[in-house]
Structure formats: structure tokens, C-alpha cells
């Protein structure tokens, strides 16, 4: 595989960054994951807009212009022959002597990108539906910034797997925030889609925005508000969204069967419609 690091396209086993990189020492880095379908970038502009916002919020300088970033994405997809999969981008504040204070302007940010071939559309998990466990949301309270501080998300995903489930949804004050690496939704008895409103409690999912647009076009009712654990367990349907899983049905929450215990019609329909419309808009 060819990867991109600090201005160069190199083979993955020849790529390196400093041991003093602030990304590994402080988690002082932001990232984006863009999916690739038919060799095209999906929701690319949304991901780059959010990347700029994450950088601004952390006062982190940008290592490349919008034009350069698009060119690197396209070139890596082409060089690695990615028809279906993802492209990962990470920017850290760079390498400097270890210090909690940010380094001066002479330190340049570290930019790295790599691709991963992956079957996204045909997903055994989406066919079966996910089993979810509920865990306390113990993350820092700026979940709207997409940083590489993913240890808690990784811990709870492992906790889910160890208990025979697929993923964890996080709970703050009795209400669901989001999944370990996805946004969370329920469908109520009367067919309303409910997902938490945007705030610093959740990542502002790019897929969330696109899927809610699809739902609006299908004339489905949408409520953006927090929902409780009790509402989730009693829901007619539930699902999650993310760039690489699209719309992913949920069939069980903390042992409670959701609906019929099989992927629900709203989630299945939204998955189809989102995939079709995002493919058509891919660049
Ligand atoms: N929430 C969290 C915590 C995530 O890590 C992610 C994606 O990685 C999402 C939500 C979904 O965001 P997107 O749809 O932009 O992939």
C-alpha cells in the first residue's frame, strides 16, 4: 500500500513519523474517515468542513489547502486501486519536545493519510442487525471535536464484544448520546425518527446529516432531541449511522429485543436510499 506522510507518497513500511509526535504523546490530533464507493469519495465536502472546524476548535494549524487535500485523497485512492473502502486522514500538532504547552509556529503539523480496502455495502452485520450494550458516557465533554482520543470508545467496544454484543451506546444523565463510533437513533411507535440534537455531547456526524436529509425526502417524521434508555428499549426500531457503516440496524439493546428482533423497515429503507444518493453524489 502507498500512504501519504508529510508531503510524500511512500510505501507503508517505509513511512515514519517522530516518536515525539504530539498525536501519540498527547492525543493532540484530529482525523476524518471518508468512505469510497465505485472509486469515488462519499460526503467528502462534509468531512473536510468538519476537519476545518476540528482544527479551528483546537487552534491547530492546517498543513494543506483544500485543493491539496482533495488531490492527495484522489491520488491515494487511485494508486491503491480502491473501489470500495475508506480513506483515513490525520493531522497532529506535530513533533516537539514533550511539553503541555503548544509548540511555536516553527513546528509544522503532521499530515498522514492511508487507504483501506473494505466491503462496505455487503455487510453481514447490517443484514443481521447489531446487539448493543449501554455504558456510561465517560468521555471528555467536547465530543463534537473529532480527536484521536479514542481509548474510551475502544474500551467500550471491547466490553461489548466480550459480552457477546456488537457495540456500545453511551448514556449521559439517563439519555443516549451516541455509539462508540456512530450516531444513535430510535424509531417510535408512531414512526418518528429520534436522534440526539447537535451539541458538544456528540460528534456531528456527516452521515447523520445526509441520512436525516434522506429521511426528510421520504417524508418521515424526525425529532432531534435526547431520548432516554427506557425509550430506546421500548422503541419499534433502532439504528446507527457512520461514514463506513452507513445505516446499521439495531436488534437488541441491553438484552431487550427491539421490534421483532430483526432489522426494521425504516432502517433498511434509509440504508438503501442513503447508499444510492451518496453514490450518485460521490466525487
Ligand atoms: N460518533 C462518533 C463518536 C464517531 O466516532 C463517529 C464516526 O467515526 C460518528 C459519530 C459518525 O460520524 P460520521 O457519520 O461523520 O462518520
Please describe what this structure looks like.
The chain is 29% helix and 28% strand. The protein has helices spanning 22-26, 44-57, 66-79, 124-128, 151-162, 206-217, 229-233, 265-280; strands at residues 2-5, 8-11, 29-37, 40-41, 85-92, 110-117, 130-136, 167-172, 175-179, 183-187, 193-195, 222-224, 237-242, 246-253, 256-257. Helix 6 (206-217) packs across helix 8 (265-280). It is globular, with a radius of gyration of 19 Å. The mean pLDDT is 98. Pyridoxal-5'-phosphate is lined by residues 33, 178, 181-183, 203, 205-208, 241-243.
In short:
The chain folds into 2 domains: 2-117, D-amino Acid Aminotransferase, Chain A, domain 1; 124-280, Alpha-Beta Barrel (D-amino Acid Aminotransferase, Chain A, domain 2). The protein contains 8 helices and 15 strands.
Amino acid at each position: 500500500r502507498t500512504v501519504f506522510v508529510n508531503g510524500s507518497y511512500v510505501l507503508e513500511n517505509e513511512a515514519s513519523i517522530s516518536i515525539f509526535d504530539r498525536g501519540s504523546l498527547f492525543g493532540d490530533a484530529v482525523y476524518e474517515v471518508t468512505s469510497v464507493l465505485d472509486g469515488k469519495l462519499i460526503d467528502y465536502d462534509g468531512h473536510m468542513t468538519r476537519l476545518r472546524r476540528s482544527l479551528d476548535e483546537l487552534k491547530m494549524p492546517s498543513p494543506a489547502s483544500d485543493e491539496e487535500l482533495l488531490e492527495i485523497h484522489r491520488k491515494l485512492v487511485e494508486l491503491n486501486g480502491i473501489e470500495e473502502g475508506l480513506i483515513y486522514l490525520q493531522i497532529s500538532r506535530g513533533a516537539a519536545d514533550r511539553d503541555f504547552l503548544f509548540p511555536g509556529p516553527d513546528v509544522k503539523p503532521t499530515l498522514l493519510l492511508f487507504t483501506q480496502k473494505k466491503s462496505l455495502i455487503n455487510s453481514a452485520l447490517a443484514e443481521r442487525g447489531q446487539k448493543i450494550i449501554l455504558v456510561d458516557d465517560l468521555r471528555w465533554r467536547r465530543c463534537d471535536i473529532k480527536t484521536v482520543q479514542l481509548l474510551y470508545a475502544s474500551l467500550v467496544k471491547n466490553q461489548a464484544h466480550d459480552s457477546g454484543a456488537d457495540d456500545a451506546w453511551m448514556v449521559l444523565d439517563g439519555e443516549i448520546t451516541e455509539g462508540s463510533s456512530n450516531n444513535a437513533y430510535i424509531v417510535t411507535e408512531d414512526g418518528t425518527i429520534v436522534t440526539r440534537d447537535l451539541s458538544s455531547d456528540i460528534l456531528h456526524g456527516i452521515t447523520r446529516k445526509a441520512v436525516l436529509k434522506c429521511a426528510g425526502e421520504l417524508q418521515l417524521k424526525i425529532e432531534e432531541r435526547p431520548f432516554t434508555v427506557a425509550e430506546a428499549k421500548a422503541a419499534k426500531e433502532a439504528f446507527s449511522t457512520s461514514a463506513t457503516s452507513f445505516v446499521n440496524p439495531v436488534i437488541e439493546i441491553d438484552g431487550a429485543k427491539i421490534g421483532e428482533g430483526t432489522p426494521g423497515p425504516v432502517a433498511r429503507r434509509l440504508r438503501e436510499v442513503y447508499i444510492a444518493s451518496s453514490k450518485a453524489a460521490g466525487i
